[in-house]
Amino acid sequence: MIIEPQCARFESIALEGGATLSPVEVQYETCGYLNADRSNAILITHAFTGDAHAAGISHETGKPGWWDNMIGPGKAFDTDRYFIICSNVLGGCQGTTGPSSINPATGRPYAMAFPVITIRDMVRLQKMLIDHLGIEKLLCVSGGSMGGMQALEWAVSYPDFVRCVIPIATTWRHSAQQIAFNEVGRQAIMADPDWCEGEYYDKKPPARGLAVARMVGHITYMSDESMREKFGRKLREKEKFGFDFGIDFEVESYLRYRGNQFVSRFDANSYLYITKAEDYFDLTNGTGKLNETFRTVDTRFLVISFTSDWLYPSYQSQDIVRVLRRINGDVAYCDLQSNYGHDAFLVDIAEQSEIVRGFLDSTARLAQAA
Amino acid sequence: MIIEPQCARFESIALEGGATLSPVEVQYETCGYLNADRSNAILITHAFTGDAHAAGISHETGKPGWWDNMIGPGKAFDTDRYFIICSNVLGGCQGTTGPSSINPATGRPYAMAFPVITIRDMVRLQKMLIDHLGIEKLLCVSGGSMGGMQALEWAVSYPDFVRCVIPIATTWRHSAQQIAFNEVGRQAIMADPDWCEGEYYDKKPPARGLAVARMVGHITYMSDESMREKFGRKLREKEKFGFDFGIDFEVESYLRYRGNQFVSRFDANSYLYITKAEDYFDLTNGTGKLNETFRTVDTRFLVISFTSDWLYPSYQSQDIVRVLRRINGDVAYCDLQSNYGHDAFLVDIAEQSEIVRGFLDSTARLAQAA
Prior knowledge:
2 copies of one chain form a homodimer.
Chain A: E1 2-3, E2 6-10, E3 13-14, E4 20-21, E5 24-31, E6 41-44, E7 57-58, E8 71-72, E9 77-78, E10 83-87, E11 102-103, E12 108-109, H1 119-132, E13 138-144, H2 146-157, E14 162-168, H3 176-191, H4 207-221, H5 224-230, H6 250-263, H7 268-280, H8 290-293, E15 300-306, H9 314-326, E16 331-336, H10 344-347, H11 350-369
Parallel strand pairs in A: 1-7, 6-10, 6-13, 8-9, 13-14, 14-15, 15-16
Antiparallel strand pairs in A: 2-5, 3-4, 5-10, 11-12
Helix pairs in contact in A: 1-2, 3-4, 3-7, 4-6
């Protein structure tokens, strides 16, 4: 499957914070075919630094999508049956309007003049795209991590427009620890003199700060076990313990490499805006009363967490499941055994695939019967 | 107890990496009194950013020591019975020779010309101090975190010079995840242009990078639970969710405050050297064979870990205990229930006090009987 990105442009979007963004563009990719009654569409929502290229081979780069192991012919999200849509999030840097986009008021990039955005705003723009594509009801919205927050927000904001949601390795609100890790990343970026209060687009970007932020992220995506298995205390390019001050351990080399690699593909201001959107995320709007939030929700849920995910620990998924059960919601839950930490939803997909495939199948059959 | 620091100066110290440091000074504090047969001395070893001021009130600053709740008359380390010594570690910045000390070869601070040091080097200097004080055998060496590594190293390097060790919330070698967190801190410092390859002593220090490094540290010292209890999602200085881009959450404010506060008391180059010493730490010298390492050890062990400590997880302490049991070593172990994460050894001290008091008492009685 060779995939080309597409773009939709809208006159404006009203944001939760009160601002209006005008115009707004959303870049997206699709695979599979929309059926005659437009009932087989699935929206995939990407994680923090992900993008619309979820599946297939990119026409431009030749690279497979970030969830290509989950999406394709015969795979969990079966493109022989379903029409898959994935769009870049609002505030990002992959084609959808974000802080690096041109501000029509100035003719220069928004930078920090970009309005604060929320997960709900991201979902609102996705809804505009779905309307634009002429789809009246999504079969499913699914994603991991921040993608899972968007799936949850779809169920709450547009309960009549989505038959089922599959939030994976996620939370109904960011905890103090999750906020803290994001804040360290933001501080690393803003501490870099090259950040220049966000006005770096015609200069060199805050590469060092952004690389440090990414390194923190990478540690939180892996588990203690998976790091031990992957790196242990293996020394790099040395026969023996060298007593010098460079890179001694493979894990250091890996983190530096991943940090520097990230800089070439991600915008530092998007890092700030998107992490803030995650931190603001609270499905209950600050009431903490998840049962009231879910009262009007008529969507099927499949909630998935992973045993070794310490960034989005299983108890956060279990909070959601418990409340849905209490109000007799339609919810299935699996806490999948994995050593891969938060990355598991991307890499440890054997069981996840089976569970998602079965759940989608039953949802599609229920929809046909209705 | 008003405490004044003391200083010992030695001609030189030979380091594990092959270099010799000359001269070398060690700053230390004591409380309690050495008894006639010099059998009641306890060495307290401090954690990464700790210092020699473990107990009592500092004559200089008026502040209590970092383990004042554990050390004093009638406390776990009872100064009515024991003579307590705590010295600043080699490579630090609190009076003991470190990268900010004057290099006699140049008349300027060592900076990155300071030789790489190890936990074993820190312990070697402590041994020189103990010899200097005329103490032939320590009753105990105890500390938490990096202090625990030093306690373990004492048992292995100088088994005939210490009756018991109490390593707390520590490990026998740094894991990939522990190395990774330290590496992020180092990268944050070295990414700061004010670091200037370590040559910042006559200029402004790399305050922003050091603050970010400290923020990462603080997150790892607390548990998910303790952060939730302390901060939750409490918003700062706002009645309501404000949708702006400054400090929104109390946890952000706390981290920034602690980060900035740290800059005024700690040297960035010491941060680099000491975290490297932690990362190099492997009690088995790379063999991984803890049973061989412990074979010649004739010291009593009390090993303490905490259930919510995810930086130095309990399994790392249990590795030590299991091997000591297999070779029929004298080892007691407690995995204390606490929500305070790694900080527990500093703040959640009720049970820890009882256990330490009893263990010291029995060790002292065994010593008298011998």
